[in-house]
Amino acid sequence: MTVRTKGSPRRPMLAILAAVAVVAVGGCDSEPYSADPTARGSASSSASSTPGVARDLVRIRYEEVTESDAGAVEIIADGNRRYRMTVYTGPEAGSFQVWDGGTILTYNPHDAPKYQRQEHPSQDEFPRPTFFFTEGTEAFRKTCPNARRLGSKTVHGRSAVRYACDKVVPEPTAPEEPMDAREIALDEQTGLMLEDGPYVPTEVTFGPPIKADTFSTSLPPGAAETETPPPDGEETTEGALGGFLLPAVGGGHLDAASYRGKPVVVVTGPADGIRTEIARLLPMTAGGRKPAVIGLLIAIPPSDWKGSLLNPADVTAFVDSVNKTSGRFAVPVGIDVKGAAGYSMTGGIPEMPPTEPGYETSVAIAMVNSIGDLARVTLADQVDDAQLRNWLAGLS
Length: 396
Prior knowledge:
The chain is an alpha+beta fold. The chain is built from seven helices and 18 strands. The longest helix is centred in the first third of the chain and has 14 residues, at 12-25.
């Protein structure tokens, strides 16, 4: 599925939200959920007993969406009528997308323009995701072909109906994504997709408290005057650096935007490995200034960490702990939680490890030229000083 408005740039954040939507909803057709209490068993969630709260208002949280490197993502869905998706960690943290039933608003703090807004997009321009399904509807048939009931199970304290689904093979012009045969589970009371193959949300809350502007697609004051979209057909690009904005070791932030338009050498890995390679590069780069040298300290929470990356306070505490133990560096170094920015940049190295605890010890060196292209990328222990000097001499 592509959650992108017509004429909008092909932004990483939009790809993240598209991937999240596929994982979260398992399809793209929108089918209004029937409020008829006879359609399913009587609701017993907190939402059903709270005056003025729809029984299909829900908050869904995912700890990580691996296809998109999104990190922690939250979806607040008002049935299939409205939704808000927010990215909380990773290089696109702070990005969100809102659909109010008639207008789509996308925000990315690292983008230019930051806001993208379109009223009344067609189904082709903006396929509506489905969160709640009813057996027998077209939306259900498309997301679970040849559905077979497999009984029930409990998911997040909710009784869910299990279905075996055949492989999804959409028509060439259809908005659905192809999917392998899989098992899904729908909440018995509301039809919410609680499992889609291996994808299960880390938290589901019915009837969550929401703000008055949760589903608002209005631009904030001044945004319309300060944010000018690019000309039709023109796309913006962040290049190999991406759009990261990371907390910096020692305070402040490391912003990829500060290095665009000029060559930069990026060292990724653990603190000691980065420090060793920076010391090696300093004499070759006029003290880390020509070209600029920066570091991305890959910080992966240990297996016994008690926090959650869905909780901003826990993320802040984790970053603070990394800051206290990482020591000093001769160049700017950002704290890259789970390596979302660093692994994205150096993913072309076959030997680069997966982003899992215990695999974060490799150190990589990436050289990005002034137009934002990745000129060189290698594991640090596979390049000698003479090669580094030759590469640096050709970097422009």
